[in-house]
Amino acid sequence: MSERILSREEVFSGRILRLVVDRVTLPDGREAERELVLHPGAVAIIPILDDGRILLVRQHRHAAGKELLEIPAGKLDVDGESPQECAARELTEETGYEASEWEELLTFYTSPGFTNETITLFRATGLRKVGSFAPGEIAGIEPIEPGSARRMVATGEIADGKTIIALLLER
Predict the structure, then answer these.
(1) Has residue 148 been placed in a domain?
(2) What is the CATH number of the domain that holds 130?
């Protein structure tokens, strides 16, 4: 069962996203409006140090109104760049590390009720320090044991959805 798009009106177009209103026909024949946020997609990385700890980044998230502890991530916003190339770039920018081994784990929708944004999740191992993190964007880097990170999810210290999914996969 799918909805057929009758028309689309662009309400806003910004640097990161677009807001559109689709007029659709529902499976039962009625018409409805759907407000959608169109997003280019993103990548996220589970960077695992040789000792098994996961590198998390602490950064201010304006929408949340506070600093969050998260896995490194970034938008697919460079023309011609593959998701893995984007992930490698973001890992270095946000942590100062490069990885020698990459594994694509899955792609998931962040909130399919109102956006088409997907995140492709990678596991990065064979990490090597090559620089420093982006101080204007990242408040700090915290290597954390996977078990400790999962406990931080249970207490609400880690509240970022993509990070929670990543930690679920790293059991």
Answers:
(1) yes
(2) 3.90.79.10
Q: Is 0.70 surpassed by the pTM of this model? A: yes
Exposure string over 105-125, b if 16+ CB within 10 A, otherwise e? beeeebeeeebbbbbbbbbbe
Instruction: Indicate if 95 and 21 belong to the same structural domain.
Output: no
Can you tell me whether residue 93 is helix, strand or coil? helix
pLDDT in tens, 29-71: 999 999 999 999 999 999 999 999 999 999 999 999 999 999 9
Let me know whether 32 and 75 are in one domain: no
**Residue 110 structure tokens:** 């962040």
With CA atoms as reference, report the closest residue to 119 among 142, 150, 87. Answer: 87
Domain range enclosing 27: 4-38
